[in-house]
Design brief:
3 helices
């Protein structure tokens, strides 16, 4: 499946897709969730 198709399906731009891929590409889902939870705690 092409990147453009994935982006269209989820309603995001290709730039957003590549930004998130660069940021979270090496993480599995549970690691990404833990990272976001940690960031949220640090902002509070």
């Amino acid at each position: 499946m092409k990147t453009a198709d994935i982006c269209r399906k989820h309603g995001i731009s290709e730039a957003t897709f590549h930004k998130y891929k660069a940021k979270f590409g090496g993480l599995n889902v549970s690691d990404a969730r833990k990272l976001e939870a940690w960031k949220k705690r640090m902002r509070s």
